[in-house]
């Protein structure tokens, strides 16, 4: 299995290898970063605010004299962890509803699809702002809000795939054998949707990273004393004129994370098309 994954990674184009390296790097930072932080996250360790790079502080200090590298390593866990969990929840919920609509007939498909169309017509950021204002911004609520915001988008793609696959001959044969709807959805339709859904999962992840970072920049995301990458940008905004690393480092982190995922998705899609020819 590891050898097969290595061969697939080796077959990726250069852009895909760059994207894979960035994704692996940020996953490693999210998993092990806080343990490698040189200082406690909230400790005041520098006498100067927005201090430059030095041997003691590789990314300088922030607006309160805290070590930027330590806060970046900690903040990446919230950004990557929340976004990955929310994307997984949104994709699994949307796909389950799409499969239900595909095998449930028009009585299930029509009202469910019209409800999702209504939700997807609302801009995601406005929708999430309303939900945050109504229910708050704890970590659990942020996870649910981010997932709920992007369920309709996943449902729309998954339903289109499932409805097309439901008309295939092998699905008709399964129906003729007397297989139940659950078996048809899980055993016949879902396995043939995996690759497009994985690409969509990557896109949902990027969207949610940007959404959570935007909410944190507005002060509505992860709340102090915790901080994600968006919070680090917001709290150090006064150092923008000085070009402080305290604001540049988390901004570059968000950019490299999202660009890396996009490069990997594009490369996987390209290699998938090549195999099908």
UniProtKB/TrEMBL annotation:
This is Dipeptide transport system permease protein dppC. It comes from Sphingobium indicum BiD32. The chain crosses the membrane at residues 78-105, 126-151, 201-222, 243-265. Signal peptide: none annotated. Belongs to the binding-protein-dependent transport system permease family. It is found in: Cell membrane. It is a multi-pass membrane protein. SUPFAM superfamilies: MetI-like. Keywords: Cell membrane, Membrane, Transmembrane, Transmembrane helix, Transport. The keyword Transmembrane helix applies. GO terms for biological process: transmembrane transport. Its main location: membrane. CDD domains: TM_PBP2.
């Amino acid at each position: 299995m590891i050898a097969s994954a290595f061969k697939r990674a080796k077959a990726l184009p250069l852009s895909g290898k760059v994207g894979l390296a960035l994704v692996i790097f940020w996953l490693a930072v999210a998993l092990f970063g806080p343990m490698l932080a040189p200082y406690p996250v909230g400790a005041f360790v520098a006498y100067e605010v927005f201090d430059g790079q030095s041997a003691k502080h590789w990314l300088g200090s922030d607006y309160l004299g805290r070590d930027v590298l330590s806060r970046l390593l900690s903040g990446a866990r919230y950004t990557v962890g929340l976004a990955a969990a929310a994307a997984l929840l949104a994709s699994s919920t949307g796909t389950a509803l799409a499969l239900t609509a595909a095998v449930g007939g028009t009585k299930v498909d029509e009202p469910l699809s019209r409800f999702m169309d209504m939700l997807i017509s609302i801009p995601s950021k406005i929708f999430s702002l309303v939900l945050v204002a109504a229910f708050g911004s704890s970590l659990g609520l942020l996870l649910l809000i981010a997932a709920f915001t992007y369920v309709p988008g996943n449902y729309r793609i998954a339903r289109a795939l499932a409805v097309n696959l439901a008309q295939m001959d092998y699905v008709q044969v399964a129906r003729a054998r007397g297989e139940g709807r659950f078996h048809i959805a899980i055993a016949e339709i879902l396995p043939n949707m995996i690759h497009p859904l994985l690409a969509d999962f990557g896109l949902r992840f990027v969207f949610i990273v940007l959404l959570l970072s935007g909410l944190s920049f507005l002060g509505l995301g992860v709340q102090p004393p915790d901080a994600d990458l968006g919070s680090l940008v917001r709290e150090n905004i006064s150092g923008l004129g000085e070009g402080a690393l305290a604001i540049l480092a988390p901004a570059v982190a968000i950019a490299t994370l999202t660009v890396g995922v996009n490069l990997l998705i594009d490369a996987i899609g390209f290699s998938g098309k090549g195999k099908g020819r």
